[in-house]
Fold each of these.
Amino acid sequence: MKTKFLKSILFMALAAGTLTSCVNDDDYNIPALECTETSITATKTVEEIYNQATSVATLYQAADENADDYIEAVVVSSDKGGNFYKTIYLNNIVADENGELRAGNIGFSIQVNQTDLFTDYGVGRKVYIKLDGLYTQIRSNTLQIGALFGSNVGQIPAELYANHIFRACTVIEESKLVNVITDLSQINDSYIGRLIRFEGVQFTDGSLNQTYYNAANVDAGGQTLTYITNSEEETYTLPFRTGSFADYAGTPVATGNGSITGILTKFNTTYQFVSRYATDINLDGERIGELPVEVGDPFFTEDFQAAENNTNFNFDGWYNIAESGVWLWREKVFQENGYAEFSPFGSGSALNEVWMITPAINLDDYSSVSFTFESAQHHLDVDADGNKLEIFIISNFNGTDIVSATKVNVTDQATLPTSATAWYEFVNSGVIDLSGFSGQVHIGFKVTGSGTDTTLDGAFQIDNLTVSGVN
């Protein structure tokens, strides 16, 4: 299986039944366990612990060495659906105007070296956390609590977690835990670690025609990223993360519009959304805009796994041409993942315009043809014409003269990384329709950048090109 890497962060086995939009009706309520109320009371608030935590993992020590400190919180995540692993997300607890308990506005996580945590700590369960002996840390603007692992907060050992996390008998209903968001542009760090229901959303065109977990489309963590949007233009998108053990892993990505519930997380600078189980996905409404073109069956693919690291790109049948400047596309390998990259940094050329062009592709054998690819960037400071990636369909090309060839720019059909995208995070292009073309064509990837202007020296990377046709 090919592994892609992701500096910012799952086999289609585990089908979760058939689903077109709203996926199964399994019962994810808190298990009915006998409960004896604890006598523990909170001595600290989550807000106090958040405010005193730093980016350095720090052992918590109570001011009174003869007394332990506790915080109270409510569980908002669940590992029952298989998409969370050895991590519990919790929120602080507040009382509303009617005195009823609800989740507050501070989300945090606890890592525990134990599975099936939902049996004791189900969604809505109030818990008390004994802080003494644990470490606190702020990472990606999120409070993390746990044991020390290296220099960061890690998992509490299985034999110790019951000495730090105590169940209360109080269970808060989910309606008092969830935060409803209807505009993806509203997302900010205050929602990290909290239970969110996005309404009026759907998956991007490029996320369709695959299952939620797609073994052929995974990141360095072994999980599949699809993307949520709330408009036909896909102005705002949010990565949706699915692992191979999710109960809906083998289900086709829903095409409709509706709501998706889950936990908002953040890796480095990139927000990511993680649903808990199949019933969190409810997309049975009419899709905004038309469905993307039917993809068909792949007939030309390139995963770049034959790349030889740090050499000029030289794949059989492909073309590597500098229209301006002298540097060329390079073959790269990172964490056993091959890809192609062009970086103008250090080239010394004020203008670099460099093409990577596929072998000729015959479109006439199919009634419709489309293609997808993945791209990433690093050190892209601005989104400008002076530093960009463009996609062209090329004909009348003799293999050397790219200037005189017929070129049609189809970049506007593709989803590409921007300066706001985390470095090295591969983004799926979405489906690019070639139904308006015929005969022999080439696909051209052109990067423009500068080797003398440091604001225009960002690099672009290409991976996993797939051309598909419908007979």
Amino acid sequence: MINRVVFIAVLILTFQFVYAQEKTLIKQIDKELGKAISSKVILYKHLHENPELSFREKETSKLISTKLKSFGFEIIDNIGGYGFAGVLKNGEGPVIMYRTDLDALPILEKTDVSYASCKTDTLNGLETAVMHACGHDMHMTVFVGVAELMSKMKNNWKGTLVMLGQPAEELGGSALLLENDLFLKIPVPSLALAYHVSPELEAGKIGYIPGPAWAKVNTVEITVHGHGGHGAYPHQSIDPIVLSARIILALQTIVSREISPLNPAVVTVGAIHGGKKHNVIPDDVHMMLTLRSYSDEVAAKMISSIERICNGIAASAGLEKKEFPNVVEIYNSLPPGINNPELTEKIAQVLKKEFGETAILKQEPSMGAEDFYAYGSTSEKIPLCMLRLGSVSKETIEEHDKSGTPLPGLHSSYYAPIPEKTINTGVKAMIITLIQLMNEIPLHTSTQQGHE
């Protein structure tokens, strides 16, 4: 009986000690973040005003890596173009990688924020506007905030923090970093983390998805051939524009009639180009497609169906087999985004203790895609987790709910996260997560490999 009483007393004292430690840590995070937040808002607005397209992130990469270097990180640059890693070693412990993307999109910004992008660049020989319409500017800002606070709070954790700046997320840039021997240049991580902003989730909240979270991507291009001619004499030609229209309509039946309703799938024709003059029927039409799924089998079925439909419609128009459309997968597909369930649930429970159950929300998988998950598809089998960072004001959400209009989504010319609350939540949540994981997970067997 006495032993049981003593045990309970020790247990209570232990819980009180741990609770006190946690409260002290949170106060320190809040204090440091309070001092840093104004400079991070300024950084965010600068990044938003100065976007750079994929594989052209020279100034962005230089700015972010220079900031990490000033915090004491060792910088390893020129990893797959403008990619870089900042490494902060802090004694024996696990290796955790935290990744941000760097690139922007060829989109004309239509927001009304005072720091809207007016930048332009050339793409495929044509001038284009450039905008951070996917929130990578917010990802980078939070990333810098996390690096700064982790360097100031080294007395609270042990291990190695690897901060990875990745170019060209919009074009699958993670593959290029891996092809450039990323895990021979940096310590091999025990696990890897990342954020993606959510254009539907209120700022101050974080979403998590254990298991399948983002779709697999296949990028396909179709060249439809025909027999060109004069627009006044269409009967003397085989019109590839008409054939393309028939193909586009027929492609809509792949998901609705050939794929099981239990298997998520998307076929989208995102671009079609053909002809240069009002009265000339062209010889060819070029189409660009994105395919989304969660399995290799569904992806293969969609590509096979596209080829069959294209060939069937071409044959029905009288084209010979050698003139059938060319269907080409133009680059390697992205794997489906699978968050490690155990890791993701663990992080969610840690964050719920600080932010509350109503702020850390379990969400549904998306048909969007993320090249972050390529880092988990190597032989190292690194566990991954990407959290979704709320970025929209409560008032904006209520306004759109009332009007029945959808919120501006990712890649929308009207998408603009609210800066301070989004940054504050993102930095605080990631710091809590990193310190908790650094102090809990065992040493990874692969941490002795790679960069010295």
